[in-house]
Prior knowledge:
Blueprint: H1 11-18, E1 28-34, H2 42-45, E2 50-59, E3 62-68, H3 73-104
Antiparallel strand pairs: 1-2, 2-3
Helix pairs in contact: 1-3
The structure holds zinc ion (ZN).
Amino acid sequence: MKQKPEKKPTPARLWRELQTCWPALKGSLALVYKPCIRPHCRACASGKKHPNWLLAFSDQGRRRCLYVPALLVPALQRALRNGRRIEQLLHQMGPALVQQYRAQNPAQTGPAVGLRPAKPSPNS
Length: 124
Ligand SMILES: [Zn+2]
């Protein structure tokens, strides 16, 4: 019989991993091609235009964009991955806190106790 590896996330384990996820950010990064303002630009005339990285993010509910220097792109991509990982960790934190509480308070009753009401046995 196969056994699952024991990898239940505890709040302490989640906290340790959370600390490795910095810097982090929420938003999206896109490579766009824009025309420039130079007259007689060959790249624009040929339709190639100019590549620019744009970081889109939300600022108090409003969508905003910033041009990003190409050298900063790898760091921002890492920060985006960290941001997604932090979100996953936060989703795991609720169940981890409940499991930790139950492990430390075994005498407590929970909703699961009432799921199967005791039926009177037909033999009694
Ligand atoms: Zn141009």
